[in-house]
Amino acid sequence: MHIGSIPDIANLIDGASRPAASGAWFEKLRPADGTLLCRAARSGAADVEAAVAAARAAQSGWTRETAVERGRLVRELALALRARREEAAGLVAEETGKSTELALGEVDAAVEMGFFVAGEGRRLYGRTTTSAMPNRTVMTLRRPVGVAALIVSFNTPLPNYAWKVFPAVFCGNAAVLKPSEHTPASAAFFGELCQELVPPGVLNVVQGLGPEAGPPLVESPGVDLVSFTGSAETGRWINEHAGRRLAKVCLELGGKNALVVCDDADLDKAVEWSLASAFSNAGQRCAAASRLVVFDSVYDEFRDRLVAGARTYDSGPVISEGSLERILRALEGANVIAGGVRVDRPGWWLAPTVVEDVAPAAALSCSELFGPVTILYRVRNLDEAIGLVNDSPYGLTSAIHTSSLHRAMRFAEAVEAGVVVVNGGTHGSEPHMGFGGVKQSGTGWREAGVEALDVYTEWKYVNLISDPSMA
Ligand code: NAD
């Protein structure tokens, strides 16, 4: 695929490149300047059906491979991705508008996930347990779920694919990946790379617009598991519809993550981490720090330094015109003390934005904007900070900056979040660490880590009853 020539990006079904059955395409524009990058297949129910059928047909043969062999192939996939890291990062930088440096880091993170799954994953440990019955041996085996629908967000595309595709296929499932309509090129690249190593039909890629290609996949009776990373709104729809036929559903959703700055914090580090957590990747991280909760006595100094930093921060563009307009609408009437305006250049650039004086119950405090916007809150003490952090519909990640072990531990225990960081940013997970949230940030699953194996396998309890007299 040569991005300079603006190719048409087709689906990948049963190992072959296929345009949408309808012949329709949608246009993908570059966020950095609004120019046309490529066209991608505008898939619908017929394409989804073909992809699910290919996955179903491939799954039983794939499951019969040993876990060690599947692990070896995942390792080969990771190595193949590493060998083409510059090319992969170039595609991601073009289709998302992020810097090549950031995109390279994401390719490396995706590769590391492959190595983790191929290494730790392939042990696929079960358990043995005791029994009240003599001569009964009980053990557990992990079995694949079947056909997995993998639906992901655009924000860090390659790690998003890697976090789902690597454990899904390693565990013996066949999969249909539905990437975001904002990142068709990286998905096609990743899919083609996989076609070189895994049998046809084990990984299929269906491009398309969310409301058109997503529902037929979620509602397909041929899909046993829906693993979704995206907004709470879409997640709720998926849960309801896949839930009707009792499919297994794993949801990794949004966040309104808080970073707390205490009066004993190292302010230089607190400002540095707040800027990176709020504005890197244009704030388009589920783990972005969109709420900064600051102790009264250091509030003014922290705010002045944060605003100075925000004014020179290069956050990159947001993903689309629609996203930029949505964020600007949400900011109307707010007390904006930095940014808050569209940058005067082509593409979808929002100046890094800091807002003050927002009530904790206001819509701006409770809804995820998924852009370079953060809100400052003033608190008197740790109890007030914890109360404010927890006063949110979301509970994904959190951070506290303090030099007190006691405050850090109290925060870690009291905060309602799936991840807690002391003296760092709100983002920065690694492949061996389970990641996920509470409340509206997810439905209790953890991705990455060995926890990912729980998403993509079912436990089977095997009872062996022997008779020593027959020995
Ligand atoms: P989104 O919900 O709009 O879209 C996510 C995916 O769902 C896309 O592939 C989209 O095409 C598809 N989709 C849309 N409607 C669908 C439907 N009705 N049925 C099936 N699929 C459908 O989210 P987004 O804007 O791509 O991503 C931003 C969101 O993702 C944020 O809320 C962010 O916090 C979240 N996110 C969460 C994590 C995590 O691990 N918890 C990681 C990254 C992003």
Describe the 3D structure:
By secondary structure, the protein is of the alpha/beta class. Helix content is about 40%, strand content about 20%. The strands form 6 sheets. The protein has a 7-stranded mixed β-sheet with strand order 15-16-17-14-13-19-20, sandwiched between helices. A 5-stranded parallel β-sheet has the order 10-9-8-11-12, sandwiched between helices. A 3-stranded mixed β-sheet has the order 1-5-4. Bound molecules: nicotinamide-adenine-dinucleotide. Nicotinamide-adenine-dinucleotide binds next to α7 and α8.
Going by CATH, the homologous superfamily of the largest domain would be Aldehyde Dehydrogenase, Chain A, domain 1
In which order are the strands of the major sheet placed?
15-16-17-14-13-19-20
Count of helical stretches = 15
CATH architecture of the largest domain: 3-Layer(aba) Sandwich
Q: Which overall shape is indicated by the principal axes computed on the Cα atoms? A: globular
Q: Tell me the number of strands.
A: 22
Q: What does the largest sheet look like?
A: 7 strands, mixed
Beta-strand content = 15-25%
What fold name stands as the CATH topology of the largest domain? Answer: Aldehyde Dehydrogenase, Chain A, domain 1
In short:
The chain contains 15 helices and 22 strands.
Keywords:
471 residues, alpha/beta, Aldehyde Dehydrogenase, Chain A, domain 1, Aldehyde Dehydrogenase, Chain A, domain 2, 2 domains, seven-stranded mixed sheet, five-stranded parallel sheet, 22 strands, 22% strand, binds nicotinamide-adenine-dinucleotide
